[in-house]
Amino acid sequence: MVLFVTAEVVAGSAAWLGRGLSCVCAQRRESDPRPSFDLTPAQEECLQRLQLRIDVAYDSSIPEHREALRALWNAAFPDEELRDLISEQWKEMGWQGKDPSTDFRGGGFISLENLLYLARNFPKSFQDLLRKQEGDRSVWEYPFAVAGVNITFMLIQMLDLEAVKPRTMVGATFLKFLSENESAFDLLYCITFKLMDHQWLAMRASYMDFNVRVPSTC
């Protein structure tokens, strides 16, 4: 329940839609005073492990990264063979070009892990989101894969996960859940993706409402 409420706070932010998933870093001033919340040793350890994941950039020279990308394709299109890791086929999933690695700049390798977690643990939801199978869809939809990378980025920023300790109540609440469940970030990602899609439908949004610029430009 706590994780679902946290996802609602994130997905309900004005930064999601209406501003084209604009970067939250542009909305926050460094001079703004922010509170700080102390962590238990267990919470601090969990945060550090999550930060290690966040710090890993996607690197196409690493075999494990290439294998993860290929696994994502196989989960998305099990009946269609991927001809090459650089291929026009990737556009079918909603990547901006034929090389998905260029879209990972904003979310890093963890954004690929998040997509794979969704595909492996909630395959029906993954396929529903990928193929836009729920609700009264518009003709021009948001790009699935790029949206997935943006969600990872937005969660990291809005939960302030790169800070030494949380500076918002939402961030502090999330870390309590993380100390109880190591997969909390991945689960929150899945919930947020579903909520974002629901909000997209409720707003009757179209492709013109989605800013496909990757958030690494912040």
Describe the protein's architecture and organization.
- The protein is mainly α and 218 residues long.
- It is built from 8 helices and no strands.
- It is globular, with a radius of gyration of 17 Å.
Give a nutshell description of this structure.
This protein has 218 residues and is mostly helical. It has 8 helices and no strands.
Number of strands: 0
Radius of gyration: 17 Å
What is the subunit arrangement here? single chain
Which range best describes the helical content: under 10%, 10-25%, 25-40%, 40-55%, 55-70% or over 70%?
40-55%
What is the arithmetic mean of pLDDT? 79
Structural class: mainly alpha
Q: What are the secondary-structure elements, in order, as H or E? A: HHHHHHHH
Q: What proportion strand?
A: under 5%
Please give the largest β-sheet.
none
Q: Tell me the overall shape.
A: globular
Low-confidence stretches: 9-29, 212-218
End-to-end Cα distance = 32 Å
What topology does this entry show?
Blueprint: H1 2-11, H2 41-54, H3 63-76, H4 109-121, H5 123-131, H6 144-158, H7 169-180, H8 184-202
Task: Supply the key terms.
49% helix, mainly alpha, ELMO domain-containing protein, 8 helices, 218 residues
